[in-house]
Amino acid sequence: MKTLLESYYSSRKGSMESTHAIGQPRKNHYVWLSLLVLMSTATFARLAMINRPFAADSESTACGFAVPIARNYVRYGPVASRFAGVMNVDQVARDNWVIYAHHPPLVPLLVAAVQSVAGVFEWTARMIPSLFSLTSTALLFAMAQWRFGLLVAFIAGILYAFCPMTIVFGGMPEYINGQLVFFALATVESYARWDQTHSPRWIVALVIFFILGALSDWPIFYLVPVLSTHYLLSRSSRSRALLCLFPFWAARVIFHHQGMLHTWPVLFLVGMYVVITSRRIIARDWIALRPHLVPLLLLGWGALHLFVGIQGNYWQEWWSVILTPGLAFAAALGIEVVIDFLPYVLRRPGPITVLLAVAVMVFIASSFQVAKSFSEEWITQGWVPVQDYTLKELGTTIQSISGVGEGILTSDTTHEPALWFYADRQIRPGITSSEKLNQSLSAGPYPLYYEYLQPKGPSPRWFVMPASHQIQFQPLAAELDARFPHHLVNGFMVYQFY
Predict the structure, then answer these.
(1) Could you report the per-residue pLDDT of 131-141, keeping only the tens digit for each?
(2) What range does the domain containing 437 cover?
(3) Which of the listed residues 1, 100, 327, 369 has the most CB atoms within 10 Å of its CB?
(4) Where does a domain end: 331, 355, 379?
(5) Has residue 398 got a pLDDT over 70?
(6) pTM (whole model) above 0.70
């Protein structure tokens, strides 16, 4: 019985210098078995992350727009705000809404659809983007298998699904997420199929997927200049030579991108792929390059987004999920280059299977370790204070002791969206002194995350202080003890103003 590698070698003629006939997928049970293994392991990885508590980290901070907007779609209905985002927490009057209208509505709408049925939890917030990350994995596998065979497809799927970038942000309910990536992949595939067949149905598919991507987030529009450039250059034999600029441009983007969340081995493999592809472009080997249209378009999309939005990419790591499918695809093709350089004794099906299996296991294990370290980076780097409580514990305590429409004060100073998610109450955080306390006891504005401000709110009824803050902010605690009745709830001191 053939192994996966034997199937690969029997279908592969020569090295990367040869190409597979596009449109001739290898229909054998190894393809389905490989896809089953890939999707099963990827599903387990997503399930392991789907119910992780929101905390003070990049993933949770990124969710500060879409998650409360989805909750308010459930609470008020999307038509009430004309599909604009309502940023408030708790039940507030319409004239007190804080509106956010800088992103299209499809991401929070789909999250709201799940939460309207299953309730508001971490896993319901992450379910839709997690499903799209899984379908992106399957689609990337299919795109690679159709053009380059089973080995490249399987490795591309592994690199995409288990890259630390995907582990950390693959289930993130934010606008730039797996949902956007999936519609971009489908748009690129539709364009590539149309470029080959000129069938109108692929134009229809391209338009549908592009519109769905546009309803998810704006970076899908970066595909317009990328696809247009290919279309114009591919129609002129004299202008094809300009394509030689692309691999060097992509290489600059890739190697200036930090290697933590995409890993340096992946970037190294992409670099090898870029070098080989550059040689083909310089040699004008257009026939050999034809199957490479999809990975080059994906790299171009990610690189353009990285360059144009360089400041946003610098501060918000999750923006680079747009680069992940192109890197995974190119790195899988780079592995072909590495295999070709190995001695023949190591390129035989048995040894190469062992080598690849070990490499995959090491990659997955190290990716989870990197993802764990990255998720804890804000604390280890001292960007947020180390606390003896979690934002989930504080938020759920606030919600348990208060009623709808009541205002809350707290001495917590993190100002993270996770606190508002779990509390779902009108909160004034950062009350750490008697002076701030007295200034905050009247009705008036209530702050929201990201420096948004709810214009009106009630006089606060409760103060919730973590136990450790009784020592850290001792003068404030002493005044609260003297003026207001209080009791301990879940390790937090709760004071009632009226």
Answers:
(1) 999 999 999 99
(2) 391-496
(3) 327
(4) 379
(5) yes
(6) yes
Q: Tell me if 344 is assigned to some domain.
A: yes
229: pLDDT strictly greater than 60:
yes
Give how far the C-alpha of residue 247 lies from the chain's centroid of Cα atoms, to the nearest Å. 25
Whether residues 188 and 227 share a domain: the answer is yes
- Count the alpha carbons within 13 Å of 256 in the hemisphere toward its beta carbon: 12
Is 62 part of a structural domain of the chain?
no
Q: Are residues 174 and 34 in the same domain?
A: yes
Q: Angle 164-169-175 (CA atoms, 0-180°, nearest 5)?
A: 150
Domain check: are 311 and 432 in the same one?
A: no
- Asked whether residue 489 is domain-assigned, the answer is yes
What's the number of domains the chain is made of?
Answer: 2
CA distance 245 to 282: 10
Angle subtended at Cα 490 by Cα 489 and Cα 494, rounded to the nearest 5 degrees: 30
The helices-and-strands tally (H runs, E runs) of the chain is 25, 9
Rounded to an integer, the average pLDDT of 253-260 is 50
Assigned domain for 109 exists: no
Cα distance between residue 222 and residue 416, in whole Å? 31
Residues 344 and 405 in one domain: no
Could you tell me if 324 and 401 lie in one domain? no
pLDDT, one tens digit per residue, over 152-203 is 999 999 999 999 999 999 999 999 999 999 999 999 999 999 998 989 899 9
Cβ 215 vs Cβ 104: under 8 Å: yes
Of 197, 184, 286, the closest CA to residue 227 belongs to: 184
Q: How far apart are CA 394 and CA 447, in angstroms?
A: 17
What torsion, rounded to 10 degrees, do the Cα atoms 14, 20, 25, 26 define? -10
